Amino acid sequence: MKESTRLKFNALLSNTAKEHGISDASVKFSVSPARAQTVIERQKESSAFLSRVNIMPVVNMSGDAIGLDVTGLIARRTDTNAADRTPRSVHSMGINQYDCKKVEFDTAIKYEALDAWAQQPGFGDKIRSQTDKQIALNKILIGWNGMGAATVSDPVANPKGEDLASGWLHKIKTRVPAQYLTQGATAGQIRIGQGGDYANLDEAVNDMLLLLDPAHAEATDLVAIVGNQLLSYTKARFYHENANKPTEKSRIEDQQVIGTFGGLPTYKVPHFPARGILITSFSNLSMYIQADSIRRQILDNPRRDQVESYQSENIDYVIEDLSKVALAESANIKLLDVGGDWV
Questions:
Q1: Which of 93, 98, 95, 94 is nearest to 61 (CA)?
Q2: Which of 53, 66, 113, 195 is the most exposed, fewest CB within 10 Å of its CB?
Q3: pTM for this structure?
């Protein structure tokens, strides 16, 4: 790197060490629980989706899920002449376990990129924001696609982080299979389109609501997270049928058509399975990070002409209330094409 860049890089190392109360950021160090919260907040700010879900620091590596959603009736009356009042817990602790596993988020930036960034204001902030954004997107990727933690991961065989942790969708599939929709009238298929199991996405979402525990029937915070292919298909079909109608064309162009399905606000989020459908609330999705598990190190590696940032955390993905989810298997959803085939 250029000498002017090195001066800024050295300043970055010095500032990082000062922030964390250490002498040298190029030597692996532990992030204090207080600073860990700052790291968590930065990652939440780098992703609109992560800003909606819970990212919780926890003390222990494993234990009972915190249970952030209030479920069921807590109001009651008691004859205190005959019995004591018995408060009911507003959490669902004791029925849902978490187990944080170490995940490494190591990044590298080539000297050429650093030299270019050094000419702009906010050199250190730019490096930090780029790293935080990539870590945030990786966490989302694992959250949707993770199926378990291998001793040694294989990013070639598992490009979506399938072997890094057990993600949200995997937890639903394995812990509440009755709320996991895998097929309709045809074995191994969920057909969406005229003549299928559901005429459209609205019908599919509305039917999946019945998979939730009745206690959540009136929940006002439920949302539908829908894969990009399903949204594109629905929009294309709507366009085909209504594009010659000025009012309907306007709805398409301002994207109102994907605002709600089955009466639920609908969201498209990064790395969600292309044909997946998930019904829950954002507050029901959590990522637990063991507070004292974050390790960091920043190294200059001249052998590769790059600066390397090493970071690891013990994390797990948690469904706070397992009765408040419904999932359709993305791989099994078939759509009716223009030729009348299910693809």
A1: 98
A2: 195
A3: 0.87
